[in-house]
Amino acid sequence: MKEIILINIAGDDKPGLTSSVTEILANYEVNILDIGQAVIHDTLSLGILVQVPSTSGTSPVLKDILFRTHELGLTVRFTPIDVEDYEQWVMGQGKPRYIITLLARMITAEHLAGVTKVVSANGLNIDRVDRLSGRIPLDDLQQQTKACVEFSVRGSVQDSDAFRSQLMELASEFDIDVAFQEDNMFRRNRRLVAFDMDSTLIEAEVIDELAKAAGVGEQVAAITERAMAGELDFIESFTARVALLKGLDEKVLADIAKNLPVTEGAEKLVSTLKRLGYKTAILSGGFNYFGQYLQQQLGIDYVYANELEIIDGKVTGNVTGTVVDGKRKAELLQEIANQERIALEQVIAVGDGANDLPMLNAAGLGIAFRAKPIVKESAKQSISTLGLDGILYLLGIGDRHSQ
């Protein structure tokens, strides 16, 4: 009768170790049912689930493994696995799988304890834990700028809304971000990322900067804040704000464009996405003048925003064409996806305001970035503690692949 044995090997990592062990198993024509290996700080943990043919016998295999690991200075443990237990384990592979991503400036044991407690309380099992952020020298530990740990979990979530709510409460309590995604085929197969511009790709509201230059800063800022919070109709408020810019000299736009504060991590994110073959877009309720400036600076593929009317070098206080509001952003997202032959499940949308919610909800992955509370509560995911390059972690892309 074939026996099933779980072999656990631990000790100092060294070249050829796994090869040496698997060579012995090959000599006895052992079947590998499962295998996993991890190395933390040059310390190896290797697990191999094997099925030993009845013709080989278990004892000779285990004896040779024991001798070899002893020669290599490793510890080994053999655990017989009952056939029924194995069959139940196999059946478990049909259970849903999820990815939980913990993001912070620095991750502490308290953060990990909080996340794992929520996972356990909801009956989920953690299959794997991976660090996606880079190694940090001791001298830089207190200045660590970002950290990320990814959990692969398995099980059935009875109430996904309640589970997300628990994770959001945890994130709020510890000032961290916790993302929860289904581990499906689309997660690593996204193809298009669409960004809002103001307060997303740039750390400013351009219309507010224009208003300051026009001497109407306080009036416009008040309208902007109410609109972004969802208290006012976007088109109505937008028209009122633009009207206040009448008479502004065109040269002011050029000066503001040159000094746009690009958001932390934007360059790294876009350059990494381009290397991976993603398409990128700006879908903004702001102005084309500044969107096209960022397009040249960052290498964005598509830009759709509002056209500020300028006659004889002066802003008229009007915009031409269709105003890009929340509904229009969602429509443009669909149009670009259709043009690129990309399913909406493969699309990521990133924004901070209420007028971004339609495109965030339409996309396969909608991310509220440093967003207003109403947007964070409504979006599928949110990032508030890191820069835009934190989005790479939600795609499972670690620092070593995004340098």
Summarize the structure in words.
There is one protein chain. The chain has 15 helices and 15 strands. Strand 13, helix 13 and strand 14 form a beta-alpha-beta unit. The mean pLDDT is 91. The strands form three sheets. The protein has a seven-stranded mixed sheet with strand order 12-11-10-9-13-14-15, with helices on both faces. Strands 2-3-1-4 form a four-stranded antiparallel sheet, with helices on one face. A four-stranded antiparallel sheet has the order 6-7-5-8. It has helices at residues 17-27, 58-71, 83-91, 109-121, 160-174, 206-214, 217-228, 234-243, 250-258, 266-275, 288-298, 326-339, 357-362, 373-378, 391-394, and strands at residues 3-12, 31-40, 43-52, 75-80, 97-104, 125-131, 147-154, 177-182, 192-195, 279-287, 302-311, 314-320, 347-351, 365-369, 381-383. Helix 4 runs antiparallel to helix 5 and helix 7 (217-228) runs antiparallel to helix 8 (234-243). The protein folds into three domains: 3-90, Alpha-Beta Plaits (2-Layer Sandwich); 95-182, Alpha-Beta Plaits (2-Layer Sandwich), CATH 3.30.70.260; 192-401, HAD superfamily/HAD-like (Rossmann fold, 3-Layer(aba) Sandwich). The chain is α/β, with parallel strands linked by helices and 403 residues long.
